[in-house]
Structure prediction request, 214 residues.
Amino acid sequence: MLNYLLDRTFAALADPTRRAMVDRLAQGPATVSELAGPLPMSLPAVMLHLKVLEDCGLVKSQKAGRVRTCRIEPQMLSEAEKWVSERRRMWERNLDRLDAYLDQNET
Amino acid sequence: MLNYLLDRTFAALADPTRRAMVDRLAQGPATVSELAGPLPMSLPAVMLHLKVLEDCGLVKSQKAGRVRTCRIEPQMLSEAEKWVSERRRMWERNLDRLDAYLDQNET
Prediction:
Protein backbone atom coordinates (compact mmCIF):
# COMPACT_ATOMS: atom_id res chain seq x y z
CA MET A 1 0.00 0.00 0.00
CA LEU A 2 2.66 2.50 1.06
CA ASN A 3 4.93 1.19 -1.71
CA TYR A 4 2.19 1.97 -4.23
CA LEU A 5 1.70 5.46 -2.78
CA LEU A 6 5.48 6.06 -2.93
CA ASP A 7 5.41 5.08 -6.65
CA ARG A 8 2.75 7.69 -7.29
CA THR A 9 4.33 10.33 -5.05
CA PHE A 10 7.75 10.12 -6.71
CA ALA A 11 6.05 10.06 -10.15
CA ALA A 12 4.09 13.18 -9.16
CA LEU A 13 7.33 14.92 -8.13
CA ALA A 14 9.02 13.98 -11.43
CA ASP A 15 7.32 16.90 -13.22
CA PRO A 16 8.60 20.50 -12.91
CA THR A 17 5.07 22.01 -13.06
CA ARG A 18 3.88 19.80 -10.22
CA ARG A 19 7.02 20.58 -8.21
CA ALA A 20 6.29 24.30 -8.76
CA MET A 21 2.76 23.73 -7.43
CA VAL A 22 4.05 21.87 -4.34
CA ASP A 23 6.61 24.63 -3.83
CA ARG A 24 3.86 27.28 -3.94
CA LEU A 25 1.59 25.31 -1.58
CA ALA A 26 4.44 24.74 0.89
CA GLN A 27 4.21 28.50 1.50
CA GLY A 28 0.51 28.22 2.36
CA PRO A 29 -2.88 27.30 0.86
CA ALA A 30 -3.78 28.72 -2.55
CA THR A 31 -6.78 28.76 -4.86
CA VAL A 32 -6.50 26.99 -8.20
CA SER A 33 -6.34 30.40 -9.95
CA GLU A 34 -3.48 31.48 -7.67
CA LEU A 35 -1.67 28.21 -8.43
CA ALA A 36 -2.25 28.62 -12.15
CA GLY A 37 -1.24 32.31 -12.24
CA PRO A 38 2.53 31.92 -12.75
CA LEU A 39 2.26 28.70 -14.80
CA PRO A 40 2.56 28.89 -18.62
CA MET A 41 -0.47 26.68 -19.32
CA SER A 42 -4.25 26.59 -19.41
CA LEU A 43 -6.43 26.14 -16.33
CA PRO A 44 -7.56 22.65 -17.46
CA ALA A 45 -3.89 21.61 -17.76
CA VAL A 46 -3.27 22.88 -14.22
CA MET A 47 -6.33 20.93 -13.02
CA LEU A 48 -4.87 17.73 -14.50
CA HIS A 49 -1.59 18.27 -12.64
CA LEU A 50 -3.59 19.02 -9.48
CA LYS A 51 -5.42 15.71 -9.91
CA VAL A 52 -2.08 13.83 -10.01
CA LEU A 53 -0.99 15.62 -6.82
CA GLU A 54 -4.29 14.78 -5.12
CA ASP A 55 -4.32 11.14 -6.27
CA CYS A 56 -1.00 10.41 -4.55
CA GLY A 57 -2.03 12.30 -1.42
CA LEU A 58 0.48 15.18 -1.64
CA VAL A 59 -2.27 17.82 -1.95
CA LYS A 60 -5.88 18.19 -0.85
CA SER A 61 -8.39 20.64 -2.31
CA GLN A 62 -11.78 21.81 -1.18
CA LYS A 63 -14.43 23.74 -3.01
CA ALA A 64 -16.33 26.55 -1.29
CA GLY A 65 -18.81 28.17 -3.65
CA ARG A 66 -16.93 28.64 -6.91
CA VAL A 67 -13.47 28.72 -5.38
CA ARG A 68 -11.33 25.59 -4.94
CA THR A 69 -8.58 25.97 -2.33
CA CYS A 70 -5.57 23.64 -2.31
CA ARG A 71 -3.24 22.78 0.53
CA ILE A 72 -0.31 20.44 1.17
CA GLU A 73 -1.02 17.15 2.89
CA PRO A 74 2.29 16.68 4.72
CA GLN A 75 2.28 12.91 5.25
CA MET A 76 3.34 11.79 1.76
CA LEU A 77 5.92 14.56 1.60
CA SER A 78 7.37 13.16 4.85
CA GLU A 79 7.20 9.57 3.56
CA ALA A 80 9.09 10.47 0.37
CA GLU A 81 11.67 12.42 2.39
CA LYS A 82 12.05 9.52 4.84
CA TRP A 83 12.59 6.97 2.09
CA VAL A 84 15.36 8.99 0.44
CA SER A 85 17.06 10.16 3.64
CA GLU A 86 17.16 6.63 5.10
CA ARG A 87 18.99 5.35 2.00
CA ARG A 88 21.36 8.32 2.04
CA ARG A 89 22.20 7.70 5.70
CA MET A 90 22.53 3.95 5.11
CA TRP A 91 25.02 4.72 2.33
CA GLU A 92 26.97 7.08 4.63
CA ARG A 93 27.14 4.53 7.45
CA ASN A 94 28.43 1.97 4.98
CA LEU A 95 31.10 4.44 3.83
CA ASP A 96 32.07 5.14 7.47
CA ARG A 97 32.45 1.41 8.11
CA LEU A 98 34.67 1.10 5.05
CA ASP A 99 36.80 4.04 6.25
CA ALA A 100 37.15 2.48 9.71
CA TYR A 101 38.13 -0.84 8.15
CA LEU A 102 40.77 0.81 5.95
CA ASP A 103 42.14 2.81 8.93
CA GLN A 104 42.38 -0.37 11.00
CA ASN A 105 44.26 -2.20 8.28
CA GLU A 106 46.65 0.63 7.57
CA THR A 107 50.19 -0.22 8.63
CA MET B 1 19.89 21.47 -15.67
CA LEU B 2 19.37 20.44 -12.06
CA ASN B 3 15.61 20.70 -12.60
CA TYR B 4 15.93 18.23 -15.46
CA LEU B 5 18.02 15.87 -13.34
CA LEU B 6 15.45 16.12 -10.54
CA ASP B 7 12.71 15.13 -13.06
CA ARG B 8 14.70 12.02 -13.96
CA THR B 9 15.70 11.21 -10.39
CA PHE B 10 12.14 11.33 -9.05
CA ALA B 11 10.95 9.36 -12.10
CA ALA B 12 13.65 6.75 -11.41
CA LEU B 13 12.50 6.47 -7.78
CA ALA B 14 8.85 6.04 -8.85
CA ASP B 15 9.43 2.34 -9.58
CA PRO B 16 9.55 -0.29 -6.79
CA THR B 17 12.21 -2.40 -8.56
CA ARG B 18 14.51 0.59 -8.91
CA ARG B 19 13.88 1.58 -5.28
CA ALA B 20 14.81 -2.01 -4.28
CA MET B 21 18.06 -1.64 -6.28
CA VAL B 22 18.89 1.71 -4.61
CA ASP B 23 18.05 0.16 -1.25
CA ARG B 24 20.46 -2.72 -1.91
CA LEU B 25 23.23 -0.40 -3.14
CA ALA B 26 22.83 1.90 -0.13
CA GLN B 27 24.23 -1.05 1.85
CA GLY B 28 27.32 -1.19 -0.36
CA PRO B 29 28.45 -1.86 -3.94
CA ALA B 30 27.02 -4.91 -5.72
CA THR B 31 27.53 -6.71 -9.00
CA VAL B 32 24.64 -6.78 -11.49
CA SER B 33 24.06 -10.47 -10.65
CA GLU B 34 23.89 -9.68 -6.95
CA LEU B 35 21.42 -6.89 -7.70
CA ALA B 36 19.33 -9.15 -9.93
CA GLY B 37 19.37 -12.11 -7.47
CA PRO B 38 16.34 -11.21 -5.36
CA LEU B 39 14.41 -9.54 -8.20
CA PRO B 40 11.60 -11.49 -9.95
CA MET B 41 12.74 -10.59 -13.48
CA SER B 42 15.27 -11.39 -16.20
CA LEU B 43 18.80 -9.98 -16.24
CA PRO B 44 18.05 -7.81 -19.33
CA ALA B 45 15.10 -6.28 -17.47
CA VAL B 46 17.36 -5.51 -14.51
CA MET B 47 19.89 -3.94 -16.92
CA LEU B 48 17.16 -1.63 -18.26
CA HIS B 49 16.31 -0.48 -14.73
CA LEU B 50 20.02 -0.02 -14.04
CA LYS B 51 20.27 2.19 -17.12
CA VAL B 52 17.49 4.45 -15.80
CA LEU B 53 19.32 4.72 -12.45
CA GLU B 54 22.59 5.54 -14.21
CA ASP B 55 21.03 8.06 -16.61
CA CYS B 56 19.76 10.24 -13.76
CA GLY B 57 23.03 9.92 -11.86
CA LEU B 58 21.77 7.92 -8.86
CA VAL B 59 24.04 4.95 -9.63
CA LYS B 60 27.37 4.37 -11.33
CA SER B 61 28.64 1.07 -12.67
CA GLN B 62 32.03 -0.10 -13.82
CA LYS B 63 33.01 -3.21 -15.71
CA ALA B 64 36.12 -5.15 -14.72
CA GLY B 65 36.57 -8.21 -16.93
CA ARG B 66 33.13 -9.79 -17.19
CA VAL B 67 31.81 -8.38 -13.93
CA ARG B 68 29.93 -5.07 -13.72
CA THR B 69 29.90 -3.52 -10.24
CA CYS B 70 27.34 -0.89 -9.28
CA ARG B 71 27.48 1.72 -6.56
CA ILE B 72 25.40 4.66 -5.32
CA GLU B 73 26.35 8.13 -6.48
CA PRO B 74 25.23 10.13 -3.45
CA GLN B 75 24.77 13.58 -4.99
CA MET B 76 21.40 13.07 -6.69
CA LEU B 77 20.10 11.19 -3.65
CA SER B 78 21.02 14.27 -1.59
CA GLU B 79 19.47 16.65 -4.14
CA ALA B 80 16.17 14.74 -4.13
CA GLU B 81 16.19 14.62 -0.32
CA LYS B 82 16.97 18.34 -0.13
CA TRP B 83 14.15 19.29 -2.48
CA VAL B 84 11.55 17.38 -0.50
CA SER B 85 12.84 18.31 2.96
CA GLU B 86 13.00 22.03 2.11
CA ARG B 87 9.31 22.01 1.07
CA ARG B 88 8.33 20.02 4.15
CA ARG B 89 10.14 22.49 6.41
CA MET B 90 8.69 25.47 4.49
CA TRP B 91 5.23 24.01 5.09
CA GLU B 92 5.96 23.53 8.82
CA ARG B 93 7.24 27.09 9.22
CA ASN B 94 4.10 28.36 7.54
CA LEU B 95 1.99 26.29 9.95
CA ASP B 96 3.96 27.66 12.93
CA ARG B 97 3.34 31.23 11.73
CA LEU B 98 -0.37 30.49 11.43
CA ASP B 99 -0.39 29.03 14.97
CA ALA B 100 1.42 32.10 16.32
CA TYR B 101 -1.05 34.38 14.54
CA LEU B 102 -4.02 32.49 15.96
CA ASP B 103 -2.51 32.53 19.49
CA GLN B 104 -1.93 36.27 19.26
CA ASN B 105 -5.49 36.95 18.18
CA GLU B 106 -7.04 34.71 20.80
CA THR B 107 -8.92 36.69 23.43
